[in-house]
């Protein structure tokens, strides 16, 4: 369904390039919900945005992305418009402020659909059912964003973003601002959306790995702009291979603890700055297993079907 | 919404109260005896002097306790009695001011509205391209930095003296008497244009820059990015940004009123345009204190009214104030 | 350590910012002109140096002479001094009062905030110029200092409002909480924790007040309520209008003072935009 090949995206700043996404390659299957986890600032949002909204100061350095076999014109703001919303959509990290504050929500939705040349009538009818799915009253369409609570806004944006049944939905930290009970409800709604074909595949970005146990089919772990490991949720939890993933999982109080508040910070050391990242494996300074070879960038290789790791101690080093 | 207006009205009432109090207080507690000065000036005209003398004793009622003087002042004010002009004796100040008001309205209303509208639209366009921005912004900054009277003087010099296409003094030619003829109306428009235009230009620069900055800020707002991410056409994103940016520009207009009025005063002085500014200059030069006090009150009342109108418009355009949410209005 | 690094970064961008460079350059030029200009001229501003009355600019009278034969260049450089004096005093007073009220309202909150807020809003609605002129009109003798104080005392609401909002948002930050918990006095917290963190804001407020004071003074002078014992740029323009500079085409009388004001105020605005870009990385051009 989605194929990402060697995708590299930097932020162009006055001080130089922030190397926020380096050589990312992975695939996403039909209907797969992939959790994308990693510490704050490791490039999750960057990866998400690269797939739909690659705008300055982000610059496309290299690599390509195929959606159902078709290459996306990532860096072409105009050409990408045809894919945005229709094929790929996003619930942004800033969902709380994502709606125009001085338009009624319904009115804004209609204007957006009309501007996108969508079939307004049909979609607005479908909108009613979607609102029900996320337990929002129909009346919200007559309200202004400021009149909704944070959780309601979050769900409203979820409905909005998926109105055109996109192939790929990127959900960026949609649970982070919520209390534990709503976190659970919102993630379940997202699964429901997938099951009802309101969207096909999902990239679920979070810095809170425990929330992924429940909903993700697979998990992709990132560290400092590089992919560390991707595997099925089962494997990541019970049989992680990358030293970073292992530390992450063991840092959680108890495997399988649901919606724990434990964040991905229990590892000694600091994440490197991406303005001038260290050569080679960026986890080197904190890695208990680091050795000379780690001065070179470890390739992200498939060590068994559906399980890829970027570490010299695993995969390529053993091979 | 009721709370919003309640609060505004309270502020305006307090402001008016304070302004009237200042108007009463200042002549009484300033060093020297300005009213005596004024009387000394008009004493050339002995009838005027005696009438003024009587009026003055009555109004100031120096034999009365202060609080009673103060109450009397309010009572007179509410009856529309602001005293008698010394310089235009024996005309009552209220009447003198009433004659000047139409000129101020004719000058200020179009200048404010048109410059605000044009400036906002121009600024929004300037925000579109780097090239436009680089040419428009410096001009805008220079225009807002220009003192009103100086732009007036320059325009008068260039169009009035060098090109000699516009008259530079008065509201209409001395040779004409006010009639409803095309000739007269044309003459009035001709006299009106330069003062209007100079007021317009200075404000225009300010609004254009304000809008340019606001819209760039709004285009970076989350809701703009979201629309961009959903591939909404540029026109929709710009329209939303504009609608949002107009709100602070509207409260900005309320805040700028005082400055604009001051600009109008000096512009009228430059063009000898018979509004309140021109009257004020004459009043100051002739030490006509009742007239000065009257001008002060009229300016305050005018600004308060304009503020109130802007508040109403704000509520009409910002749904958040209507829904009882706190809006951005000043 | 971090603060130091940040300062260096600001300096780096400040030295490279065109708008800041241009603004500072123009201001510096006029400050030098005000400081040393009077040394370049042999005349006094009100001396009738040219017996034949008005003449156009020449090597003898650099900016020509007035209707009465006074040297315009001398008047302009002396007027510049007056302008800077009023601007510094007026904007200094306005910024200080604004800081005091803004800090108090923003930091203390509650009823004090309410009262200051109402007061600020009232003074904000009253047209400054109207108050200035009614006071000035009753003063028989008006000095530059008096004018500055009046301007300063009517211009603070802008500053107060802006500073209040900033203080309000800073007051709940960690470092302020920390200071509060360690038992520091409000006064100390405001000046050692809050003020340094909004220095950029205070500087920009002061700059805007500076420009505002210049324009206000020019207006007051032009209406005939300027200083009675000094020359100022606004007064030069007033005299030029009063004595028919327009009708007689004596452009050298009214162009220089207005041009000086426009350039100074424009330079201040330019500096402000430049500083904004330096302090807000988001606005820096890529
Ligand atoms: N607009 C930007 N300009 C420069 N650097 C940025 C920008 N946005 C993010 N970054 C940098 O890119 C890196 C990745 O950020 P992000 O993708 O937002 O992380 P995450 O979503 O995982 O928290 C961070 O180091 C961050 O500092
Ligand atoms: S490549 Fe080296 S440093 Fe990186 S995770 Fe593997 S062992 Fe650690
Ligand atoms: Mg993020």
Low-confidence runs of chain B: none
SSE order of chain B? HHHHHHHHHHHHH
Structural class of chain C: mainly alpha
Which whole number gives the mean pLDDT of chain C?
A: 84
Structure description:
The complex is a heterotrimer of chains A (319), B (330) and C (286). Chain A has 319 residues and is α/β, with parallel strands linked by helices. In chain A, 27% of the residues lie in helices and 24% in strands. Chain A has a domain at 2-87 and 201-309: 3-Layer(aba) Sandwich (Rossmann fold), CATH 3.40.50. In chain A, strands 6-7-8-3-9-10-12-11 form an eight-stranded mixed sheet. In chain A, β4 (58-67) and β5 (70-71) form a beta hairpin. The longest helix of chain A is centred in the middle third of the chain and has 16 residues, at 180-195. The two termini of chain A are 29 Å apart. The model of chain A is unreliable at 255-265 (pLDDT under 50). Chain B has two domains: 2-78, no CATH class; 99-329, MetI-like (MetI-like fold, Orthogonal Bundle), CATH 1.10.3720. Chain B has helices at residues 2-29, 34-42, 46-60, 66-78, 93-126, 130-145, 148-162, 182-219, 222-229, 234-270, 276-285, 289-317, 319-322. Chain C has helices spanning 2-16, 18-36, 72-108, 110-125, 128-137, 144-170, 174-181, 186-197, 199-225, 233-242, 251-279. Chain C is elongated and about 75 Å long. Chain C starts with a helix and ends in a 7-residue tail after the last helix. Classes of the chains: A alpha/beta (319), B mainly alpha (330), C mainly alpha (286). Chains in contact: A-B, A-C, B-C. The interface between B and C is large, with 60 and 50 residues. The site of adenosine-5'-diphosphate has 14 residues of chain A, from β1, β2 and α1.
């Amino acid at each position: 369904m989605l194929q990402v090949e060697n995708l590299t995206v930097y932020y162009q700043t006055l001080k130089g390039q922030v190397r926020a996404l380096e050589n990312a390659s992975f695939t996403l299957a039909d209907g797969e919900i992939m959790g994308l986890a990693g510490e704050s600032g490791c490039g999750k949002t960057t990866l998400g945005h690269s797939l739909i909204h690659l705008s300055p100061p982000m610059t496309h350095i290299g690599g390509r992305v195929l959606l159902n076999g078709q290459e996306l014109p990532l860096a072409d703001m105009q050409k990408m418009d045809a894919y945005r919303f229709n094929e790929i959509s996003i619930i942004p990290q800033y969902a709380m402020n994502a709606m125009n504050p001085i338009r009624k929500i319904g009115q804004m939705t209609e204007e957006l659909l009309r501007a996108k040349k969508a079939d307004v009538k049909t979609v607005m009818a479908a909108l009613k059912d979607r609102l029900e799915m996320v337990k929002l009253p129909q009346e919200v369409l007559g309200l202004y964003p400021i009149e909704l609570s944070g959780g309601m806004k979050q769900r409203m944006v979820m409905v909005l973003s998926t109105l055109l049944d996109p192939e790929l939905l990127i959900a960026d930290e949609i649970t982070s601002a919520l209390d534990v009970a709503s976190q659970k409800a919102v993630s379940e709604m997202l699964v429901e959306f997938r099951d009802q074909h309101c969207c096909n595949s999902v990239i679920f970005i979070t810095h809170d790995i425990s929330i992924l146990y429940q909903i993700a089919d697979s998990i992709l772990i990132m560290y400092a702009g590089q992919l560390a490991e991707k595997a099925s949720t089962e494997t990541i939890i019970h049989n992680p291979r990358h030293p970073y993933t292992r530390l992450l999982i063991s840092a959680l109080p108890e495997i399988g603890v649901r919606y724990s508040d434990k964040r991905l910070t229990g590892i000694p050391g600091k994440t490197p700055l991406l303005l001038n990242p260290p050569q080679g494996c960026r986890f080197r300074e904190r890695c208990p297993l680091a050795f000379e070879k780690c001065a070179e960038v470890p390739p992200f290789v498939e060590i068994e079907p559906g399980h890829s790791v970027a570490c010299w101690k695993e995969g390529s080093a053993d091979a | 919404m009721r709370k919003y207006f309640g609060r505004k009205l309270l502020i305006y009432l307090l402001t008016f109260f304070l302004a009237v109090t200042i108007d009463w207080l200042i002549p009484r507690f300033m060093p020297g005896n300005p009213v005596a000065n004024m009387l000394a000036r008009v004493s050339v005209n002995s009838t005027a002097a005696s009438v003024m003398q009587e009026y003055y004793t009555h109004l100031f009622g120096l034999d009365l306790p202060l609080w009673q003087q103060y109450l009397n002042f309010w009572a007179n004010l509410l009856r529309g009695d602001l005293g008698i002009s010394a310089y235009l004796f024996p005309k009552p100040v209220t009447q003198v001011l009433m004659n000047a008001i139409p000129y101020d309205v004719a000058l200020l209303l179009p200048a404010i509205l048109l410059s605000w509208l044009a400036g906002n639209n121009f600024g929004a366009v300037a925000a579109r391209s780097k090239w436009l921005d680089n040419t428009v912004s410096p001009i805008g900054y220079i225009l807002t930095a220009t003192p009103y009277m100086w732009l007036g003087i320059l325009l008068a010099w260039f169009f009035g003296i060098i090109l000699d296409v516009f008259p530079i003094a008065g509201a209409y030619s001395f040779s004409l008497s006010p009639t409803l003829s095309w000739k007269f109306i044309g003459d009035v428009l001709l006299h009106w244009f330069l003062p209007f235009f100079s007021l317009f230009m200075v404000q225009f620069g300010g609004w254009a820059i304000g809008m340019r900055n606001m819209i760039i800020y709004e285009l970076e707002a989350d809701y703009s990015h979201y629309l961009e991410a959903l591939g909404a056409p540029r026109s929709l994103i710009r329209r939303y940004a504009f609608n949002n940016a107009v709100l602070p520009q509207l409260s900005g207009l309320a805040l700028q009123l005082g400055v604009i009025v001051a600009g109008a005063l000096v512009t009228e002085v430059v063009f000898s345009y018979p509004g309140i500014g021109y009257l004020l200059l004459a009043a100051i030069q002739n030490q006509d204190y009742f007239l000065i006090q009257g001008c002060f009150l009229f300016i305050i009342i005018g600004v308060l009214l304009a503020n109130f109108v802007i508040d109403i418009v704000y509520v009409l355009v910002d749904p958040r104030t209507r829904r009882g949410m706190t809006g951005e209005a000043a | 350590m971090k603060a130091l690094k940040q300062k260096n970064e600001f300096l780096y961008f400040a030295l490279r910012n065109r708008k800041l460079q241009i603004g500072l350059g123009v201001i510096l030029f006029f400050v030098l002109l005000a400081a040393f200009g009077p040394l370049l001229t042999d005349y006094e501003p009100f001396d009738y140096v040219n017996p034949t009355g008005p003449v156009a600019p020449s090597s003898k009278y650099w900016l020509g002479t007035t209707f009465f034969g006074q040297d315009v260049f001398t008047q302009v450089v002396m007027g510049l001094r007056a302008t800077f004096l009023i601007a510094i005093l007026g904007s200094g007073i306005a910024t200080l009062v604004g800081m005091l009220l803004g800090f108090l309202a923003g930091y203390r909150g509650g009823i004090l905030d309410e009262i200051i807020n109402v007061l600020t809003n009232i003074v904000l609605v009253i047209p400054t110029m109207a108050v200035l002129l009614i006071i000035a009109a009753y003063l028989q003798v008006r000095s530059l200092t008096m004018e500055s104080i009046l301007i300063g005392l009517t211009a603070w609401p802008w500053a107060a409002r802006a500073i209040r909002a900033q203080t309000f948002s800073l007051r709940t930050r960690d470092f302020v909480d920390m200071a509060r918990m360690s038992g520091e006095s409000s006064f100390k917290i405001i000046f050692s924790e809050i003020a340094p963190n909004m220095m950029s804001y205070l500087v920009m407020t002061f700059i805007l007040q500076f420009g505002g004071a210049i324009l206000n003074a020019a207006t007051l002078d032009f209406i005939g309520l300027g200083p009675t014992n000094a020359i100022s740029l606004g007064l030069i323009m007033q005299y030029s209008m009063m004595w028919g500079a327009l009708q007689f085409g004596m452009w050298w009388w009214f162009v220089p003072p207005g041009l000086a004001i426009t350039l100074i105020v424009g330079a201040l605005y330019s500096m402000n935009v430049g500083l904004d870009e330096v302090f807000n990385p988001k606005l820096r051009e890529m």
